[in-house]
Amino acid sequence: MAEKEKYKDNRARTWTSIVYPESAPENWKEILDGYHVPWVESPLHDKDINPDGSVKKAHWHVILLFDGKKSYEQVKELTDAINAPIPQKTANTKGLVRYLIHMDNPEKYQYKRDEIVCHSGADVDEYFALSSSSRRAVLREMTEFIKDSEIDNFADFIGFCLEKNELDWFDVAMNHNTLAINKLIDSIYQKHNPKVESSKNGSLDEKVAQVKELRSQGIKLAVIADTIGVSLATVKRYLNK
């Protein structure tokens, strides 16, 4: 048994530690950057709550992402340089990255994803990828929003996603269900801007009837003019007939 323990591999590629503002050097980020190891910095956790209701001491979570396995002693050299508590290895990098903003812990304060900072080439986007079931739920949310808001322009919708930082919506709309979202938005556009087949070749009475029908639906005069293929002044005359 002792022989097995002697050769047990306690190294890992992913390690984590906590950094406290009051004990870390002011340039602690630059110190870590100097080791040229990919690492991830959480938002400052200053709203975490203890079981007794008191606010936890503010801190950052740090994730070190090594290319190869590193021992505790090797990693401690880095954490000692920034006066951080002892490092801990992790086998679940995805869960740890998502914990930086409490993504899977809705009972905890929700920090912003765009406040996660990646250093020295670290990339965490893959850890936030939606599962198939989550993507379907997001698509349903988007569909209901588009219908309720009667959005009839794809660019406007994408602009909304970016402005409101709806990153999951943006990802689904641009990378997964673009065609479905486009068709939904186009159908709303067609509803707002109905096309009247062969309207340009109809008789005067037919055109007058078409204009009045479109106007009764609340369609704007300029849109009616474009649809029928006549001037705005002519549309107004049709409505007076």
Automatic annotation (TrEMBL):
One Gene Ontology term, aspect cellular component: extrachromosomal circular DNA
Organism, as annotated: Ligilactobacillus murinus DSM 20452 = NBRC 14221
Domain Plasmid replication protein origin binding as annotated: residue spans: 8-125
GO molecular function: DNA binding; DNA strand exchange activity; DNA topoisomerase activity
UniProt-listed InterPro entries: Plasmid_rep_OBD (IPR002631), RepB_C (IPR053923), Resolvase_HTH_dom (IPR006120)
Residue stretches making up the Resolvase HTH domain: 205-241
UniProt lineage: Bacteria, Bacillati, Bacillota, Bacilli, Lactobacillales
Domain called Replication protein RepB C-terminal: residue spans: 134-187
Protein name, UniProt field: Rep50
GO biological process, one term: DNA replication
